[in-house]
Amino acid sequence: MTVRVDVYWNVKQGCFSIRHKGVVIAHASTVLIRDPEYVVQKAGRARVLASGQKEVHAFVRGHLEACQGEETYAARSRGFYCLWTGMDNRYRKFANQTGRDVTYNPLKVDTFMVQTRDGSGGFTLEPIAKGELALLRKGTIMGRKGKPVVIDFDPCQMPEGFR
Fold first, then answer.
1. Over 60: is that where the pLDDT of 163 sits?
2. Which residues lie closer than 8 Å to 98 by C-beta, 6 or more apart?
3. Tens digits of per-residue pLDDT, 110-144?
4. Is 81 buried (19+), middle (13-18) or exposed (0-12) by CB count in 10 A?
């Protein structure tokens, strides 16, 4: 059984917060979401643009497959112990090698964008609303270290060596 959650980057704690039915149930460094929807709440974005202050208004919504982190007291009191499984490294490796980076900047666009390679070796940005699987993790290389990284990928394209 998987649980439908909203996952967003928690700036103050430097990790992803996992929310179920409005209650934060975990803080994690890595999260795997099945059937992700990339949600931007328009009214929240408008408040961010008007006030200049950060606010949670964009998140990835989907079914929690796995995560690496710690559940909150609210999660333990609701019996969510079974969710905190180890991340399958095959998914992580495949996503990092073949997935597409998903970005969001409320000052520039009103939707999540995905980077795709164009024919000339560069990248183009296209809107994205849904996907097959999303890997959300903390960046580990220079320029992205400690920042959120969201990778959208299709597990059906995994070769036998990854399965």
1. no
2. 153, 157
3. 999 998 777 677 778 899 999 999 999 888 766 67
4. exposed
User: Is the separation of the CB atoms in 62 and 98 below 8 Å?
Assistant: no
Q: Which of 39-48's residues contact partners 24+ apart within 8 Å by CB, and which partners?
A: 39/6, 40/104, 40/106, 40/110, 40/111, 40/112, 42/110, 45/106, 45/110, 48/106
Full-model pTM: 0.84
Looking at every residue in the chain, the average pLDDT score rounds to 83
First to last CA, the chain: 21
Residue 58: which of 4, 107, 115 has the closest Cα?
Answer: 107
Q: Assess whether pLDDT exceeds 60 at residue 85.
A: no
The two tokens of residue 100 are 């597409």
Q: Render the burial of 129-140: b for 16+ CB within 10 Å, e for the rest.
A: eebebbbbbbee
Ranges of H-type helices in 52-154: 73-77, 89-98
